[in-house]
Amino acid sequence: MAKLITKEQMAEQESYIMKLKEENMRYAAQNGHAKLALTETYGCQQNENDTERIRGMLRQAGFDFTDDSNKADVVIYNTCAVRENAEQKVFGRLGILKHIKEERKDMVIGVCGCMVQQEHITEKIKKVHEHVDLVFGTHALYKMPELLYRAIHEKKTVVDIDSSDGAIAEDIPIMRDDDKKAWVSVMYGCNNFCSYCIVPYVRGRERSRTPEAVIAEVKELVARGCSEIALLGQNVNSYGKDLDTDVDFADLIRMVNDIEGVERIRFMTSHPKDLSDKLIDAIAECDKVCKQLHLPVQAGSNKILKEMNRKYTKEDYLAKIEKVKKRIPNISLSTDIIVGFPTETKEDFEETLDVLRKVEYDNIFSFIYSRREGTPAAKLDFVLTDEEIHENFNKLLEVQNEISKRKNEAYVGRVEKVLVDGVSKNDETTLSGRCDSSKIVNFKGDKSLIGKYIDVRITEAHTWSLNGEIAE
Ligand code: 5AD
Ligand code: SF4
Q1: What angle is formed at CA 275 by the lines to CA 182 and CA 304, rounded to 5 degrees?
Q2: Contacting residues for 286 by C-beta, under 8 A, at least 6 apart
Q3: 3-class secondary-structure state, position 78
Q4: Which residues bind [4Fe-4S] cluster 2 per the record (predicted)?
Q5: CA 334/CA 63 separation, integer angstroms
Q6: CA angle, 415 as apex, 411 and 418 as ends, to 5°?
Q7: What is the mean pLDDT of residues 159-174?
Q8: Which residues define the annotated binding site for [4Fe-4S] cluster?
Q9: Which end of the chain is more exposed for a tag (fewer CB within 10 A), N or C?
Q10: Which among 350, 289, 299 has a CA at the least distance from the CA of 324?
């Protein structure tokens, strides 16, 4: 059973929120406006969800929000460590903030999340980016009010990257981005140690929230008008293994399915080795669970899968996919692929293309391998050149784009229930939303339909989206 942050510890943080609020109210009375905070998120949905908590704490502490770093009094970057380019972007941003801070000495700059949970990164920040006031890791999120208070008052960088306890903090304030759709974390961390991946090192071991805590959060969301729930975890299929009760993820989604007011349930991410028949049955039988499965394969070659420490073969994976397709014929499938794992040869890569052609995913998320210090794969030498890896990456996209387009074409003529997210980026009169399988659907309609479920007849298919019209 995961340790919980105690009520006393949470109360202590609340007292810091009150201290910040008092100061901020005084500031607002003197200046005619509240202090402004800016948050920026890199990486996965878990990070998006963590930023919603950061904004929740900031709002309770009396901050307003801005997107303009020239105006922000507090800037918090919630960072990602999965690939190097996300880290480089943050360092680039910190460089720009240095100049802004030279003009505005009271500005407080904070960097948090996965990236700073790595010691070499925190050392670099301390050495090269002395203008950063606050550094805290994924385990210290709940302590942000205290750390921010100290960063404002102490004239030295406040750092908390302790990863020793990893206790779960319930009831951190939250400011959700969307009224209708919400992420709900069901577990944190990962025990899989895939050889390329930094996540287990920066997010710690798997810890499940209790079913009671998850259900209570979903019920509260529904009471506020939210109806689409996305259950989140690095590997949701091992949900519950660390709990005292014998509830697993299949049981949990059935519990959420029973909650009145929930219309749609999504979840991610599933590890193929842990995808059980029981879970496949639950997806098939629960009317609110979207018929959509994200099942990262990463690579097609058995040699590479072994070196990645994925614990399944290409044949095991394809057999699971066949089982899923048979049990849930209308399932929409997606996956993650890494191109250019160090020991990957051209022949190995062909095996990945073969998986794409056999499975026929609706869409894929593909990444070029990024070396992560401290992971076992970081020690391996590369077989292919950068150029060859990029060629393979482009080939992968080419093969998949053709499949995605074909899969989308099968939707033409169907009526799909779409939850309307907003107006399209390019055209105010076009609405955009997502259907059950999470495909983007654009159609003409009035803004008043935002936040509603609308039946849309699909008229046209593109590679990345569908067009349609409101069904009579
Ligand atoms: N390089 C490239 N992609 C990676 N991923 C994880 N680690 C790396 C890495 N070192 C990808 C995997 C994972 C997704 C979230 O990010 O495909 O499923
Ligand atoms: Fe990383 Fe593998 Fe865990 Fe996914 S399952 S977070 S790829 S270690």
Answers
A1: 110
A2: 253, 254, 257, 265
A3: strand
A4: 190, 194, 197
A5: 39
A6: 95
A7: 87
A8: 44, 80, 114, 190, 194, 197
A9: C
A10: 289
362-419 per-position pLDDT tens digit: 999 999 999 999 999 999 999 999 999 999 999 999 999 999 999 999 999 999 999 9
The answer to whether 339 and 392 have CB atoms below 8 angstroms apart is yes
Question: Thinking of the domain 7-160, which architecture would CATH place it in?
Answer: 3-Layer(aba) Sandwich (3.40)
pTM for the full predicted model: 0.95
259-318, pLDDT tens digit by residue? 999 999 999 999 999 999 999 999 999 999 999 999 999 999 999 999 999 999 999 999
Q: Is the CB of 194 inside a 6 Å radius of any atom of ligand 2?
A: yes
Binding site residues, as ranges? 44, 80, 114, 190, 194, 197
Q: How far is the CA of 360 from the centre of ligand 2 (A)?
A: 23
pLDDT value, residue 472: 77
171: phi then psi, degrees, rounded to nearest 5 = 70, 30
The chain-wide mean pLDDT, for the chain, equals 96
Q: With contact defined as beta carbons under 8 Å apart, do 403 and 412 qualify?
A: no
Mutation pick for ligand 1 pocket among 42, 237, 335, 367 (CB with most ligand atoms within 8 Å): 367
Q: Judge whether 135 and 122 are in contact, CB under 8 Å.
A: yes
Which pLDDT value is given to residue 454? 97
309 lines ligand 2 (CB under 6 A): no
Ligand 2 pocket test, pick from 185, 190, 308 with the greatest ligand atom count within 8 Å of Cβ, gives: 190
- Mark out the alpha helices in 62-117 (DSSP H runs): 84-103
Residues having CB closer than 6 A to ligand 1 are: 82-83, 196-197, 296, 298, 336, 338, 367, 369-370, 372
Domain extents for the chain? Answer: 7-160, 178-290, 325-409, 415-470
Residue 165: the pLDDT is 64
Fold of 178-290: Transcription Regulator spoIIAA (3.30.750)
Between CA 257 and CA 441 the distance in angstroms is 25
For domain 325-409, give the fold: Transcription Regulator spoIIAA (3.30.750)
CB 365 near ligand 2, within 6 Å:
no
Task: For residue 299, give the nearest of 346, 333, 336 by alpha carbon.
Answer: 336
- The answer on pLDDT for 442 being more than 90 is yes
Fold for the domain defined by 415-470: OB fold (Dihydrolipoamide Acetyltransferase, E2P) (2.40.50)
